Amino acid sequence: MNDPRRIVSREIALKKIFLDQYGDSCELHCCGALWSADEWAAAKWFGNKSDLAAGMLKATTEPIHRSLHKLEARKDLAKEGARHFKNLLGYCGLRKSSAPEALAEEWLRAGIDHPELRAELFAQLMKQLTESEGQLPRTSSAFSHDDKAWNLLVASLSHFAPPKAFENFLAQFIRSRAPQHLRDKLEMLFHTSVFYADRSGQRRVASRVEASYSFYTSTRVKRSRRKVMHVC
Q: Residue 162: is it exposed, middle or buried by C-beta count within 10 angstroms (0-12/13-18/19+)?
């Protein structure tokens, strides 16, 4: 079977069967590549460690003090991962920025250029989309924080796929947390991104993904200028 559409549709069906049975073990807090909540909180010198640990994987308005993933073997990446969370806050309107789209472009570039950061970037988006409704201040933008975070998830999947070891965690998140009007489209985007990444031998998939599905007529990132388009 060489038809990409049929292959992707089959993978969506198979993933649904898998997650129906094992979805609970694919929640983000079960990911062994992440710090435990207590370890993550302990790395901050001050503040209430219990509150910090409880909020490790929940939406926040504050920068994170360390990456969510255990990137200590590459201290440069660990520092870079935490820095990109500030870009996420700025793009979503929770941190002052005169050029939020430039922050999103930097985010996408980091994922394209540094495969080791991709799981961290997806995990940060998942964190910001967890228990966010009604818990975060309104932004000055016409788009809500959640709108922009989902938008950046679409843009990220349009440019790079999640690492193999992180695929099920992101698939479960989309399945259980995505808004109803976006869920089917996001599942298609997720599996299309993975499909082309697997077959290209690399994790950069933007041009192949964009050419494949009409979904991107309303959700794509304009590659010529790397502009992030609103999709929600």
A: buried
d(C-alpha 115, C-alpha 108), whole Å: 11
- Assigned domain for 228 exists: no
- Residue 203 confidence (pLDDT) above 80: no
pLDDT digits (tens, 9 = 90+) for 48-96: 899 999 999 999 999 999 999 998 778 788 899 999 999 999 999 899 8
Query: Residue 138 CB: number of other CB atoms within 10 A?
Result: 8
Structural domain of 32: 4-219
* pLDDT tens per residue, range 129-188: 998 876 666 665 657 888 999 999 999 999 999 999 999 999 999 999 999 999 999 999
Domain contains 226:
no
Task: Output the six-digit token pair for 137.
Answer: 């201040």
CATH code assigned at 12:
1.25.40
Are the CB atoms for 57 and 130 separated by under 8 Å?
A: yes
| Assigned token pair, 152 | 């950046």
User: 75-105 in b/e burial notation, b at 16+ Cβ within 10 A?
Assistant: eebbebbbebbbbbbbbbbbbebeebeebbb
195: tokens are 């499909």
- Give the total number of structural domains in the chain: 1
Alpha-carbon gap, residue 216 to 219, rounded angstroms? 5
pLDDT tens-digit readout, 94-126? 998 889 999 999 999 999 999 999 999 999 999
**What is the rounded CA–CA span in Å between residue 88 and residue 23?**
27
Could you give phi then psi for residue 227, rounded to 5 degrees? -85, 140
